[in-house]
Amino acid sequence: MKRASFALVLAAAGCAHAGAKPASQPSPAAAPVAAVPAPFPSTYRPFPSVPTLIRGGTVMTAAGQVIPGGEVLMVDGKVAAVGQNLTAPAGAQVVDATGKYVTPGVIDTHSHLGVYASPGVQAHSDGNEATSPNTAEVWAEHSVWPQDPGFIRALEGGVTTMQILPGSANLFGGRSVVLKNVPSRTVQGMKFPGAPYGVKMACGENPKRVYGSRGGPSTRMGEMAAFRAAWIRAQAYRERWDRWERDGREAKSMPDRDLELETLAGVLRGQILVHNHCYRADEMAQMIDLSHEFGYRIRSFHHGVEAYKIRDLLARDSIAGSLWADWWGFKMEALDFTRANLAMVHQAGARAIVHSDDPTGIQKLNQEAAKAIEAGREMGIEVSENEAIRWMTANPAWALGIDDKVGTLEPGKNADVVVWSGNPFSVYTRVDRVYIDGALMYDRMDPRRQPRTDFEVGLFPGEAQR
């Protein structure tokens, strides 16, 4: 049977100490994210769906409940009810999930799919605008190739939402974009409606390696000075525009636009979230001090190999840790690692997140979480599966500013749902079904719901005819 391409599917569908008491949520509440109009608005529209009742599986809501023999009802693209003995509307599709597990869709806070697309050739290397240490003016969405086959592989791993980031060559790499993992001809058709932008910041070895022989910064102190100078410019830029707003928006006095400073001013206004690539504990502490100096908040540290050393600071400032389970040792700043990193950050009361930064790792974030659970237990930190499911659903949703829409199975949330063949923390488990806004986007048992990108179908026309 012919395997559907993206286009065909579209047409068919029309860091506290080890003995501390675990905290379920960080105590400090982060300020709400302010809405801001987007010059490149989302054109995403949910795929057609039918009322669906998933019945009989173990439902892990990621909101604190695990319901054996549970049920999830999806209506009009939303979670309508979660519990037991639910009544399905007339004509609803009933899915038997007996022996299976049901969870929210998996969310990856750190992906480069689309900007470093497959196949991995120079022509697809669009993630690092390595022309200046500060390229806050660039936007990752303008490099995303929707035909990247990696999106399909991620869907097969249960990933429904992901943040696409620029690379880490620069101090300011540019804006990120949050995408829904759906077929689309354009990146605008994948953009998560209402999701705030992020900005990628990077400290440490990468920027000084790239720019050390190109005019700097060539040292960590040079990086810090460049950060501070950029934020000083951004403060002045914001004040000019605020003054213009206060003075009645006279056209003759309208300030000149600066795309780099627009992004940084958006951070200072609380409209754009900071996602900070940083490995060493001392540098993360420096970045926190920098945020205090200029009055912005860091939403998440990414990679954070030494996050366990400052886990109390992360909890204090409500900063998430987007971390690996066991990827370390590939450069000097990534050496001082413990496999219990995620568990220790979680135990301190900070938001722990399993992220990928890799087109293969994004396919098995559930297995990465399982490794981190076991590493914590080996150290005497008991992390329940009920808590760890949040590492790849609710916590990343918070880090991306979309936790009011996705990340948990609760009435009113978007119906992003994964049906697993067994316990999601087992290496033997596979994703059986993936729903996005209530629409069935992947079915392991139905070749018609195992999409290929048009790029792949074009490469393998013989296979496309099967």
Overall mean pLDDT stands at 92
- The CATH architecture assignment turns out to be Alpha-Beta Barrel
Low-pLDDT windows of residues: 1-28
Secondary structure: number of strands:
17
Shape field: globular
Round the Cα radius of gyration to an integer and report it. 22 Å
How far is the N terminus from the C terminus?
A: 5 Å
- How many individual domains? 1
What structural class results from the helix and strand content?
alpha/beta
Residue fraction in strands: 15-25%
CATH domain class name: Alpha Beta
Provide the helix percentage.
25-40%
What name does CATH use for the topology?
Answer: TIM Barrel
Task: Give the number of helices.
Answer: 13
Relevant CATH superfamily: Metal-dependent hydrolases
Could you give a short account of the major beta sheet? 8 strands, mixed
List the helices and strands and how they pair.
Blueprint: H1 6-12, E1 52-60, E2 66-75, E3 78-83, E4 93-96, E5 101-104, E6 106-111, H2 150-156, E7 159-164, E8 172-175, E9 177-180, E10 198-202, H3 205-211, H4 220-246, H5 259-268, E11 273-278, H6 281-294, E12 298-303, H7 311-316, E13 320-323, H8 341-347, E14 352-354, H9 365-378, H10 385-388, H11 394-399, E15 417-420, E16 431-436, E17 439-443, H12 454-459, H13 461-464
Parallel strand pairs: 1-4, 1-5, 6-7, 10-11, 11-12, 12-13, 13-14
Antiparallel strand pairs: 1-2, 2-3, 5-15, 7-9, 8-10, 15-16, 16-17
